[in-house]
Design a protein that fits this description.
Layout (H helix, E strand, L loop, with lengths): L1 E9 L13 E10 L3 H15 L15 H13 L5 E8 L12 H14 L7 E7 L8 H12 L4 E8 L5 H17 L8 H13 L14 E5 L7
Parallel strand pairs: 1-4, 3-6, 4-5
Antiparallel strand pairs: 1-2, 2-3
Helix pairs in contact: 1-2, 2-6, 3-4, 5-6
Length: 233
């Protein structure tokens, strides 16, 4: 079966910034069967028309005026059940030891990218991965990521790993929305009574959870993988 994966990131500078305004670096991924791509995009377009809401879908752009549109986006995600899945990795920046990554924060970042993706790649499937464009010092990072995924998933086919502009790819934008919801809850950035809190509460209600938090590995709809950098169980 052919799958497409749309990826985005939140707070990637936490490894290097002295002024940390969040606890966690997060990388998110939206997984869909390739055959559903056009249907999902069509439904997203219908929501734009219904709400007369245009421009980029983005967590930072949520407002009271746009709230009904964004609530419907959450409902759309939920309506596909396990045919549309989300997974993110949660990295506690304070405990990242860059010495383990040759003192290279960019290398460390893509190692976490690998951890996000590898565990949801299954044998005998084809995967195409689309990452939001990121300026890398080493221009071969995505090629190396593809090679690492291929080497560790010999019975699957990694057809492509490419960088694309999120402004032109609505499914990366939807990933940004879901990642923003998870990140705001886990980084404790939500303001009571705000439109963003309403989005998060709608998502939590649809998922049947009290609050978004790290999940078990077998959670297939909305998986939040907290990597344990301090060791332990």
């Amino acid at each position: 079966m052919k799958f497409e994966v749309y990826c985005d990131e939140s707070a990637p500078d936490l490894f290097t910034s002295a002024n940390k305004n969040a606890r966690y670096l997060m990388i998110g991924s939206l997984w869909i069967p390739a055959e559903l791509r056009n249907e999902i995009k069509s439904k997203l377009w219908d929501l734009r028309i219904r709400h007369k809401t245009w421009g980029e879908i983005k967590w930072k752009k949520i407002s009271s005026k746009r709230l009904p549109f964004y609530l419907d986006l959450v409902d759309l995600f939920e309506s596909y059940g396990l045919e549309m899945r989300f997974r993110c990795i949660l990295v506690e920046a304070e405990f990242v030891d860059l010495k383990l990554h040759n003192n290279d924060s960019e290398l460390g970042f893509y190692k976490f990218y690998y951890q996000l993706l590898h565990h949801w790649i299954y044998d005998f499937n084809d995967y195409r991965l689309f990452c939001d464009i990121k300026t890398n010092r080493d221009t071969h990072r995505l090629n190396i990521l593809k090679q690492c995924l291929e080497n560790s998933n010999l019975s699957a086919r990694i057809a492509d790993v490419q960088a694309v502009p999120s402004t032109q790819v609505v499914l990366i934008q939807l990933c940004d929305l879901l990642l923003g919801a998870a990140g705001s809850r886990l980084n404790k950035k939500l303001k009571p009574g705000s439109p963003k809190e309403a989005i998060v509460k709608r998502l939590e209600s649809k998922l049947g959870v009290d609050k978004l938090m790290p999940t078990e590995r077998n959670n297939k709809k909305f998986n939040i993988f907290r990597i344990h950098l301090k060791g332990g169980w």
